[in-house]
Amino acid sequence: MAQFRFKALEEVLNRQPVEVAREDNLTSDYFGMLVFDRPKMKKYLSREAYKTVVDAIENGTTIDRKMADQVAQGMKSWALENGATHVTHWFHPLTDGTAEKHDAFIEFTSSGGVIEAFPGKLLAQQEPDASSFPSGGIRQTFEARGYTAWDPSSPAFIIGTTLTIPTIFISYTGEALDYKTPLLRALHAVDKAATAVCQYFDKNVTGVKANLGWEQEYFLIDEALYMARPDLVLTGRTLMGHASSKDQQLDDHYFNSIPSRVSKYMIELENEAYKLGIPIKTRHNEVAPNQFEFAPIFEEVNLANDHNQMLMDLMKKVARRHKFRVLFHEKPFAGINGSGKHNNWSLSTNTGVNLYSPGKNPKSNLQFLTFVINTLKAVYDNQDLLRASILTAANSHRMGANEAPPSILSVFLGTEVSKMLDLMEEAVVDRKMTPDEKTALKLNIGRIPEIILDSTDRNRTSPFAFTGNRFEYRAVGSSANNASAMIVLNCIVAQQLKDFKAEVDAIIESGIKKDEAIFQVLKKLIIDSKPIRFNGNGYSQEWVEEAARRGLTNVKSVPEALSAYLREENVKMFNENGIFDKAELEGRVEVEYEKFVMKIQIEARVLGDLAINHIVPTAVKYQTVLLENVKNLKEVFSNEEFSALAKGRIDIIKEISGHITAIKSKVNEMVDARKKANVIEDIVEKAEVYDTKVFPFLDEIRYHIDKLELIVDNEIWPLPKYRELLFVR
Ligand code: ADP
Ligand code: MG
């Protein structure tokens, strides 16, 4: 079939949508059917065991061995009834994705038969042979013992035939080796700090939880085309490929009707997700061709993050059934939008109040403003940490390297909240307020609800935006574990709230009334954090310049960004909030540096190979055809006629030669640069050298390959092109 350059293209065009068995029942009938949630716990556990687990979930109390045995029995009964044969501890190591190791339920009986067994000790704790998970040197391979421990705050679930228990993963000496452990610690810190501040406003508040609603963006690529792109298979992104003549400039993909194969995929995925209790709410096309998004109803951060990781796994599995591959890479295609994972975040009290929702009276609005302003200050003071928590080799392509958004942190508040802050800045003075002044200010503060409901200005270019009842941290990468950003965000807000409370208390002690003390400190915070507020276009060049004038940082290099973690004041903050001790933090940062080096190393190798064994031979082949043609012309035509006729062809031959020579020499230089970098012992230095000496070759080599793609005969180009990857379906 000559019209298809590839067997793969033919395959794609002949694909039929995979029929999805629709659930007959209402979603609410099967939602959570594979989760050991509270109703099931109530049914399968003794009243005492049920109470113990609920207490552990709500108050973080521990569950003793005897009780763990009871819970395990109940869980086992439920799991066996639902077809489970195995059990696994499931955790979030510092790699991409999650890890699990399955054990069958069987055990020998004394008479030599087998029974289904699941003792409490297996529920509570396990020891995976985990020597090959990254730990940044904390756990040397010779003492490779880490263990996983049950996290009762996230319910167990069944995947296939495996009962899956969410766990933390720590070393024998107690250091966190995963994302979940420090996340739980950070959530505890923000709970304590926020509850203390809430006490100024409402004595009934005894707990504050953090909420997360993630918006997961991703690309779907047909399996056959994906397989024909070794760079996608090995690195998750295209290392070469000229832009398609048409991509997203017509904005015709965003919110358009979903293609039928894709829609079947989404329906099956949602069915599966609902059974696992993942509350997917929206699905739609994104800006770039073949780009889509899922978003859930928000949940408590730890649970929401488990659900995000579960969904990412599920998305990959279901995609295979539909002959798709999911790309979670932040920038799989140059020149068009990349994928992020907006983290919608808020705090809410045990009394049911969202602290980022304006209230119904001046008092609750002052509480609202207190939390908004403290968050603003936390982001301002910790721009570098927030950036360090999201910047990776992959995400750096999204953040400022070539295309928007830039790597500058700023906060969008919208005009109405901004006005309110300006008002507080002017109204409150550092002297005793007159009763009239106080009344006026309170009146103004009381007006917030209506104005926020009115305001529709939503700024899509802000990396950290207030969107009516929450903040949205938008710089998080699509492939990331949200915990990385959530650990930092919750930690810095906890720290800021503690500082705030200490200051307010000190002023109260000097004899000033509580309200006024709060006004005073808030005013100071508003003034101090002013440079971080920006309501304009965050993607514009003017903003880059303006941000520099304001002294905001703009760090594009991953190694440089990561160094923020180990600044003295940050080590101290993590430590004081009980999130990381110094060794843990150092280990973690080392893992990040290692990941960075490895990603660039792999990309460099893949690009080098493809350039030399796919691209150069193809270019030579086409060049030979042209040379043959020129020779033939020479035989047929007179010298004069020949010169005129062959000129164009000879120019192309020269152009091809130029690109081939450049590719060959640059690949050689890149290999040399890598060799030099690889012998560097110090991981930070090695990462810096990879960043500055190896990484630039990727773009330089690509430039020549992409030029060749435009020149060489389409029939023999060895890789699916952007226009095929993005538009053939
Ligand atoms: P948009 O694309 O307009 O930003 P979406 O509806 O796609 O909005 O996603 C918004 C996400 O924010 C959803 O996951 C939603 O549940 C979540 N969300 C809404 N309110 C809150 C809140 N108070 N705290 C945390 N997340 C929230
Ligand atoms: Mg959003």
Structure description:
Helix 7 (180-198) packs parallel to helix 17 and helix 12 packs across helix 15 (435-446). The protein has 3 domains: 2-13 and 21-178, Ubiquitin-like (UB roll); 187-580, Creatine Kinase, Chain A, domain 2, CATH 3.30.590; 595-725, Four Helix Bundle (Hemerythrin (Met), subunit A), CATH 1.20.120. Strand 16 (464-466) and strand 17 form a beta hairpin. The strands form 3 sheets. Strands 9, 10, 11, 12, 13, 14, 15, 16 and 17 form a 9-stranded mixed beta sheet that branches. Strands 1, 2, 5, 6, 7 and 8 form a 6-stranded mixed beta sheet that branches. The longest helix is centred in the last third of the chain and has 55 residues, at 582-636. It is globular. It has 729 residues and is of the alpha+beta class. It starts with 6 loop residues before the first helix and ends with a helix. The structure holds adenosine-5'-diphosphate (ADP) and magnesium ion. The site of magnesium ion (MG) has 3 residues, from loops.
Write the layout of secondary structure elements.
Blueprint: H1 7-13, H2 27-30, H3 38-44, H4 47-59, H5 65-81, E1 86-91, E2 99-104, E3 106-108, E4 114-116, H6 120-124, E5 125-126, E6 146-150, E7 157-159, E8 162-171, H7 180-198, E9 208-222, H8 223-227, H9 230-235, H10 260-275, E10 280-285, E11 291-296, E12 299-300, H11 301-321, E13 324-327, E14 341-349, H12 362-381, H13 383-388, E15 411-412, H14 414-427, H15 435-446, H16 448-454, E16 464-466, E17 471-473, H17 483-509, H18 514-528, H19 541-550, H20 558-562, H21 568-576, H22 582-636, H23 639-678, H24 683-711, H25 722-727
Parallel strand pairs: 1-8, 15-16
Antiparallel strand pairs: 1-2, 3-4, 5-6, 6-8, 7-8, 9-11, 9-12, 9-13, 9-14, 10-11, 14-17, 16-17
Helix pairs in contact: 4-5, 7-17, 10-11, 12-15, 12-17, 12-18, 14-15, 14-18, 17-18, 22-23, 22-24, 23-24
The structure holds adenosine-5'-diphosphate and magnesium ion.
